[in-house]
Structures are given as structure tokens and as C-alpha cells.
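Q: For a teaching session next week I want to show students how multiple molecules come together into a single three-dimensional assembly. I've collected the sequence lines for a complex. Could you give me the predicted C-alpha cells for the whole thing so I can convert them for display?
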Amino acid sequence: MKTINIGLIGLGTVGGGVVEILRRHADHYRTRAGVDLALVKCADRDEARAAELGIEPARFTTDASEIVNDPAIDIVVELIGGTGAARSIVLDALTAGKSVVTANKALMATHGREVLDTAAEAGVDVLFEAAVGGGIPIIGPLKHSLVSNEIQAVYGIVNGTTNYMLSRMAEAGLDYDAALAEAQERGFAEADPTADVDGLDAAAKIAILASIAFNSRVCLEDVPAEGIRSITPDDIAYAREAGYEIKLVAIGRRTAGGIDVRVHPTMIRAGHPLAKVNGVHNAIYVVGDAVGETMFFGEGAGSLPAASAVMGDVIEAARHIQGDCRALVGCTCSESLPLCSIEDLSSSYYVRLHVRDEPGVLAAIASVFGENGVSIASVIQKRAAEGDAEIVWITHAAAERDVQAALATMAALDALDSVGTVLRVEEL
Amino acid sequence: MKTINIGLIGLGTVGGGVVEILRRHADHYRTRAGVDLALVKCADRDEARAAELGIEPARFTTDASEIVNDPAIDIVVELIGGTGAARSIVLDALTAGKSVVTANKALMATHGREVLDTAAEAGVDVLFEAAVGGGIPIIGPLKHSLVSNEIQAVYGIVNGTTNYMLSRMAEAGLDYDAALAEAQERGFAEADPTADVDGLDAAAKIAILASIAFNSRVCLEDVPAEGIRSITPDDIAYAREAGYEIKLVAIGRRTAGGIDVRVHPTMIRAGHPLAKVNGVHNAIYVVGDAVGETMFFGEGAGSLPAASAVMGDVIEAARHIQGDCRALVGCTCSESLPLCSIEDLSSSYYVRLHVRDEPGVLAAIASVFGENGVSIASVIQKRAAEGDAEIVWITHAAAERDVQAALATMAALDALDSVGTVLRVEEL
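A: Of course. Below is the structure for the complete assembly, covering every listed component.
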């Protein structure tokens, strides 16, 4: 059994998990997985971190190129993230004939084609299971077991931060700010939560999943993303009255007109398996023409779960090196499907309006919806305060552009104080 | 691209699904999966079935050995089931150097070692994703992504028939017979439902999953199985009052004393993801030391879902043949862990007793539990009819042998009419 040498670049949260798992299981992998793995070198900007993880100085460097250029290293694990240095490291390692394992969603969602083409040219593997859903196996299943299907849709709760916040807003009535503060306190949200709460993290993940599921490249910049900043506990309560939960859902659908891909807070039926995914958990719900409905659930973040996926990929890459079987499954984007514009979307909508509590207001607003071809499924009127009311409208399937036109028109109504939350309803 | 020739043996429900998927997608697989598949021959005892599926006579035979002995065939798909003819077909095909894809849980749970050893010796693949959980990817994830973990436990709702029946008993109050009749009417249960309702189907599946998860061979005969015949709608109602659902759970746990593997109706907390898996759906909940908790959910049976898994394996086997990479991951049973005896189990128990409604009966029974070292967590007494009552006991963690001893002793009590249902409570 040939020893497979690993170079690890980035000793952050996930990198620490990789060091820990290898320490626990490198011996087991020889018997259980048939590969002999050796972590020969680690790189990080922070020397203190190496000491903290018990990595002896001889196996540590602050210069990542020492790993990329080391001919003894078979697999490079890139865990620094981002699209700057990480991109060069990954491309250089692949070009040097090393297999690469990465957890870098930004890189794969932005430069996925370049990375996969470079790997194919070099005849090596690039594996990135940890880029989506932490430890949950989802990229492997899509590229292997489920490849027999024409995938029709992928719906993901793929951001643990926002799912935790929405869960706490739902169960404890916290408002957005309180939920964010609690998430930050518990280590589930960054000091700057932008990437999570504005849906950008989820957008990168659905770009990756859609690219694989629909065999057609989708990039981060192709994904319209709305976050959860506008959601209030009242929205969640009203949604529940109507039988729905509000989740930040990353959506990818194969439609007759192309790929419909987007991220936004979404109302989904309370009985649907995705509606029951709470806290920091992630889940990816996949619909295929043969398999029907299937869902993958688990811990979407954290040191060891993400490192579990990284190490699964390392073992896979090592098996391929040992069996001289690299580059067996590369880029699956053999087609070039068009992307749908969100303006062409047809969906039900939830619209919460703040209005003056006076006669005729409901009729006036209903007229505007009607004039724009938006048919109403239900209306709930709530008194907010003396003289003020909230009206929650749920529409039948309507065109996004018609709903937006209706909202623009009703903005001119005297009786309308403001448009509160507007949510799309997804009938899964 | 080399054309990979497939021989399909068994044109039943799943075989029909395979024919259908290949008809839909063989062209897609060339571009999307990089393999060129041709279904060159099908075998079944029933000639009429071939005509029904639109298979021309030249590609059909009633003699499976024609496929096994055809040197032009690269992959044999075995879908006849059972451990008789299927075993010979699989072993002969492997020995002839063909890769084999099978959905045969009985074969893998009974002769798994022999089948995997034969494949290893011949240097070919044997893949069996469809043997557990229908279309749900679970064997692939356990052998690949999750192989980085030491798996601590696998809990499966892996029998759709009994899950459907228990769901209908819970939601519509049907009794066992009515639930079975309904399941049979809807095509979810066989005319002879024994394998499903007595837990034998689930036992074969957990034997397969445990063998992979714990790297140690578990055979069907090693799995103590209890079915759902004794469950009443009252049990389900009482369980719900205590915050539990009753599911037929196939359990595999790595313990200090060895592998704890068993199938029985089980009370699980209503909030647990497995408790929410209803109807014919299947789910497999896996706990690993790195990944934490993860769950795989989907349609556990049916023609196209099972065929989805079969075809995923066929594509995988074809990629390996094309890349000359067969036998990369074979048998993972590198260890020989002992099996726990169910008598050594420590668990909470639910015990429903029919008693005479007279003073002192509760105290008398409580004494028997106490004398046997079984501590009681809660007691609910229900009047059943004039003079009769039911007492539902939930114990703290207790030894199986102590609970059995207590039940044997209390059988002698005059006030005890009969022991109703005894269930184990699993705190997941």
C-alpha cells in the first residue's frame, strides 16, 4: 500500500477538524478504507495556530507554495477560502499533477469551469463535497447514485445561520436583531453577517448544486439572492396561520424555458420535510424523474462535520491515486441551458401591507391587484395599532412582473402606509 | 467511447423500471455521465412480460445463463431476488469477469461475504445501492463520503409497508388488520405480508448497512427481528400522550461490547427527524463521530425509485470499466466485532398491561417491577371497560432480561389479565 502524502493549506475551523480526524483515524483508514494517508505538511499564516493544533514545526510552513511545489505531495487540501490566493493555489496544484480537495464554495461557484477544466487537462481529481451542506453527502450522490435521473429540482436549506435565526424567530418570537445577536453569541453568525443574512452564501451553494444537477454551468453571479433582513416574527406567525413556514430556500428548477435559480425567503407548506428542518441544520431536497423525492439532512457547518466531507474526498482521491484511476468523473456540465429571469417567474406571493384603518382600503388594494392580473387566494386583516392595520394577501400563481407592477401602482394610494414583506410561496 | 453492454435478468417491477429509464436516458448518459450503455439482452421466465415492456424477441431469453455466458456482456443486472438461482447467477457472472449490479437484499444479507470475495478475486465491481432504501443513496455515501467517520449508529425506517401501516394507524385510527388491508389494496403490501410485517425485510437491510457502517460482517440470521402485528391504535395514542411516535426501526449501534443490531417497533421522540417520516417513505439516520447526525430520506420502494439506484450503480460500474478502474472499493468488512445479545440490552420500555380494575393492582405490579430492578418513569391508568383497565408503564433504562423476568413473574398475578404490547424506547 503506497503512502499518499497530503498537504493541508489553511488551519482555520475546518482545517483544525481535518487535523483532528486524521489524528483519530489515519490508522483506521488503512484497514477500513484501504488507503495509507500521511499529513506531511500544513500551511497557514498563523504560526501560533499550528502550535495550538499540535503540528510540529518541521511539518509547518507559512508559505503555501512550499506545498504546491513539493513533488512528494499527492493531494492538496485547500481550506483558505475565497477567490484570490485560493484560486492560484488550486490551479497551480492541479497543474502540478496533484489531486485537490477543497471546501471553497466561492471558488467553485465563480471559477468552477476553470478549476474543473484544469483538473481534466492534468488528469487529476478535484473534489469539493464540503462546499455545500457541511458534512452532508450531496455532491457525491448527485454525481454518482442520482446521475441516472434527469433532476427536475433542487431545494436547499443550505445556510445554517439564517435557518437558526428564522427558527428562533418562529419558536421564541425574537425579532431579526435579537435573533442575529443570539446567533452571533452562540458562534453561529459572523461579526459581519452579510454573506449569510443576504443570501450570498446560499447563492454560491445553489450555483454549485444546479451546475451538477442540470449538467449546465450556473455561476454565483447568475443567482438572484434576497436575504432575511425584512422578515419579522409577525410574518412567521401569519405564515403559520396560513399553514406555512418561512425558510431561506436556495432553489434550482429545470423548466421548459431553462434553469430557474434563485435564493429568497420562501413560504413552504408546514407539512413538507424541508419545513421541519430547524436550527443550524441543513437539508437538500432533490426531485428526480426516476428517484422521485429525496432529501439529505444534517449539520451544515462546524469544524468536524465539514472536515468529515473533506476527509471523505481525501480518501476518495487517495483511492483513485492508488488505483491509478484519477479524473474518472470530472465536470458534468455538458449542456448550456439558458437561465430564467426572475421577472418571468410565476409563483404565489405573500404580501404584507401597512395601511390606514379606514373604509374602502381593502377594496382599493384588491382593485390594483385585479387590474394587474393578480388573483387573490386569501386576505387576512389585522389591526396593528389605533388607526393602522396590516393586510396580509396571499395570491394565486401570478407573474412576478405583474406583482411588482401592482406594488408600484398601489404605492401611490393614500391609504397605503408602506409595503411590508413580500415573499414567494413555493408549492413543493 | 466504448459501448458498455448490459444484460438484465429479471423483468419484474424494478426490471421494468430499468428498461424504462434506459429508454428515456441512454442518450443523455453519453453526454451527461460519459458512458455509452446498451441493453443487449434481457431474461425472464415470462415471455409475455418482455412483450409488455416492448423488448423485441431478439433481445430476450428465458435462459439467464445465456446472459451470464455471453462474452459480449460487460455488466449483469440481477433483479430476480432470493438466494437460490440469483446466487448462482451473481457468482457465475462475477467469476466470468463481469461487473454485477443487484437489488438483492436477501442475497447480500446472507451471502454478502461470498459475493464480495468473489468480486474481489475476479477484480470486478459488485454494486447494490438498490438493496436498501429504494432510490435513496445510502450505501454509496457510507462507502465514500462518510468513510472518513467512525460510524456510531445507523437507525433506519427501511420498510415502506409497515411505515405506511403505522402512519395510517396513527392518523386514521385504523387497527392492524384494516391498515394491512388498505396497504394491500394500494399495492404497498404483498398478499403474503410476512416479510414486511414481521420485520424480516428490515432485518436484511440493517444487516447490510451495519456491515458497511461498522466494517464488520453482520448477516440476516444475526438480527433479532420483531414485527408490528401486536401494535394497536391505542399504543400509538398512548405513545403520543407521552411524546413519542411508534416506528418499525432497524437499529445498528457500535457499543463497547460489540455491534448491537435489531429490528423492532420502537418509540422515538416525536421531535426527532425519524419520527416525522410518514407513509411509504424511508429514511436512514446515521450518526458519525465527525459528521454528527445526518439523515437520508426518500421513496423506499417502487419501480422507478429502485431502478434509479440500479441505474446509478450501472453507470458507476460502466465508468469503472471504461477507465479500467474496477474493484476500487470492495468489501469494507476488515474487522470482526462481536454481536451483542438482545438480552444484554439496556433500554427504556413501554409496557401495556390489561388488568382487573380493583384496588391494589397497580401497587402489586409496581412491586414486581421493583423486585426485578426495573425503575418506573411514568404510569398511566386507563379504564378499558367495566371492571377492566389498562396500565401503561414507561420504565427508566433497564436491562432487557430484568424486564422479561418481571413480566414472567407478574403473569402469575391474579389481577393481571394479559400483557399487551411491550416496546423499547430509543432515546436518539
